[in-house]
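A further point concerns the way the authors explain their paired sequence and structure data. Showing the layout once, in full, would remove most of the difficulty. For illustration, here is how one protein appears when written out as sequence plus structure tokens:
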Amino acid sequence: MLTMNDISVALEVALSYKELNRSAVKRGLSPSDVTCVTPSAGWFGPSEEGRRVIKVQCFSNQGTPNFYMRPLEGLTMTVDIDKKVVVKFTDTGGEIPVPKATGTDYRFKNQKEPLKIKAINPISIEQPLGPSFTVEDGHVVKWANWEFHLKADQRAGMVISRAMLSDSETGVPRSVMYKGFSSELFVPYMDPDENWYFKSYMDAGEFGMGATAMSLVPLNDCPRNSYYMDGIFASWDGTPFVQPNMICVFERYAGDISWRHSEIPVNGFDIREARPKVTLVARMAASVGNYDYIFDWEFQTDGLIHVTVALSGMLMVKGTTHQTVDQMPSQEAASGPLVSENAIGVLHDHFITFHLDMDIDDTNNTFVKVDLVKERTLPGQSPRKSYLKAKRNIAKTEDDARIQLKLYEPSEFQVINPSRRSRLGNPAGYKIVPGGNAASLLDHLDPPQLRSAFTNNQVFMSRQFISPFSMVHALTIVRVHLFQLSSAFSLR
């Protein structure tokens, strides 16, 4: 991980480099108008072995805080952090103008003209008796039938541990998950240009989701009656520091329906049953350079855990000589669309991967892949030609549990405890439901993909060894992209 000291050293070396000042002056900028950042550290071959090198690129902050929209295109420095020297300087973008600052200031107070939309009246959710959850010892969250440990982590951002759900019939807490967190965010940009090829971020591993989590804004980031939690982290020299109010916990009601059913009165039943959906949310927001990631772990009273990640912030743009699409000789040849005058939004991906250490009713857990297959009816058997059949496959090796999602070969994924049965004999378990997913199209030998080979599969389960005698624990460690956990198929 790059420490703040590493970044400070790199920027200090870069900003004092005379060639940078000359390049800035050629673009009509003074040194005070220049802001520099350290993009992805990356790894691109043996020439970097044994060296701690980082790229540095710069922007114009003249007239706007949104310097990301004003790149000094073509200018890249490679800094050796240990030797504190610039080992390579390139500036191939002298003919590319710096995009204008007009209209780039995103601060609400600095908007000169109001938006041409009808104003929204104030809205507020009231809790006259206060929130229904409690936080004990600063970390143990209790709400409805849920109890879990919540902490801030310098690398992962937010970690949920020892999640337990009370049995609705006995009231006895039952374990669901030992630990869950976002393990990595892989963001490769798709431009082989000398000044862009290395932009293949590992936001958690290189910068830290907790280290980049700023204080949440009350009433805007989190609603009224939220509970706020600080992060206590270690700086580069071991000195502790506080990241204040980086996590919030709150109850959410957005007018959604938890469950409902009505009966048409033709059969004598006049029933309209509906229950509102109130959930508990643990939230954090990390500002990793130009992008802001908002993580929500949402707990429902029916036992479901729903995790979402929202993306906000600014684009990372590439400078160009073109001001309109008509000036571009080939839009398809560009690395992305023209998003503003002299600015291209480079095509890129965001792969967000989660580590789920499941403990369904203790540690004797098994991963099950349920394939939905088409069966054809026999001649004369039925007016139907085909139907679906669920075929269960218990993973016996890690290779059995490396899953690539396929639209026309659908599967469901379950973590079960075969030793804990319901009164009907079904094993207790949870279903893992992948959310929005994508497959990396990069070559498997491409340096960014070598570092992020975990994205070659959308679900990857591994066993954990827990004793010095190499006894295999039946615990499942699941790595999966955006997901939700559902107990709908039988926690009882």
About this structure: Confidence is low (pLDDT under 50) at residues 465-476, 488-492.
